[in-house]
C-alpha cells in the first residue's frame, strides 16, 4: 500500500520535531560538559599520564611489603589441598554427600520394606496351610 502525500508530510513533520528536540538535548549536554571542563581547569590539578600514575602506585606498593605468617599459610594450604576420602558406591564422584547419604538411607529402608513384605507373605502362606488342614480334618469321614 503506497504512502499518501498527507501521511508523508505528517511523518516529515514528526521527524523534524524529534530532530529539533535531539539538537536541543545535544546543545544542553555540550554546555554542561564545557562548564565541567572550566571547573576542572579552575582547580589547577596536576595532570598525570597513565605511566606516571601506575609507576607511583608500583613504588608505593613495593615500599611496604605485607608481613606473611608462613606457618599459618602452610597450614591453611594443607587444609584446603586435602583430598576427600571415597565413601564407595557407584558414581559417587558426581554426587554430593547429601545425595549419597539419602541413597544409602533409601537402600536401607527399601531392604527393610522387602523383608517385611517377605515375612507377611510367609505368614499368609502358613495361615492358608493351617486353614486347609483344618478344612480337610473337618471334611474327613469318621472311621470309628
Keyword list:
mainly alpha; 75% helix; elongated; single chain; 144 residues
What can you see in these coordinates?
This protein has 144 residues and is mainly alpha-helical. It has four helices and no strands.
Largest sheet: none
Task: Tell me the strand percentage band.
Answer: under 5%
Q: Please trace the helix and strand order, writing H or E for each element.
A: HHHH
Overall SS class: mainly alpha
For the residues shown, what is the average pLDDT? 80
Taken from the alpha-carbon principal axes, the silhouette is: elongated
Helicity, as a percent range: over 70%
Which runs of at least 5 residues are low in confidence (pLDDT < 50)?
Answer: none
Compute the CA-based radius of gyration.
45 Å
Number of helices: 4
List how many beta strands DSSP finds: 0
Distance between the termini: 116 Å
Q: Would you summarize the structure shown here?
A:
By secondary structure, the protein is mainly α.
Topology:
Blueprint: H1 5-43, H2 50-63, H3 70-81, H4 97-139
Amino acid at each position: 500500500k503506497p504512502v499518501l502525500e498527507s501521511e508523508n508530510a505528517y511523518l516529515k513533520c514528526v521527524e523534524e520535531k524529534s530532530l529539533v528536540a535531539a539538537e536541543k538535548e545535544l546543545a544542553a549536554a555540550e554546555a554542561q560538559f564545557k562548564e565541567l571542563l572550566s571547573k576542572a581547569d579552575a582547580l589547577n590539578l596536576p595532570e598525570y599520564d597513565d605511566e606516571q600514575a601506575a609507576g607511583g602506585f608500583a613504588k608505593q606498593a613495593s615500599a611496604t611489603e605485607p608481613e606473611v605468617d608462613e606457618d599459618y599459610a602452610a597450614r591453611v594450604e594443607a587444609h584446603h589441598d586435602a583430598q576427600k576420602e571415597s565413601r564407595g558406591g557407584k558414581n559417587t564422584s558426581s554426587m554430593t554427600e547429601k545425595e549419597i547419604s539419602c541413597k544409602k538411607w533409601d537402600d536401607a529402608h527399601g531392604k527393610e520394606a522387602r523383608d517385611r513384605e517377605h515375612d507377611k507373605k510367609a505368614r499368609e502362606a502358613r495361615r492358608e496351610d493351617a486353614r486347609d488342614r483344618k478344612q480337610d480334618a473337618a471334611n474327613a469321614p469318621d472311621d470309628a
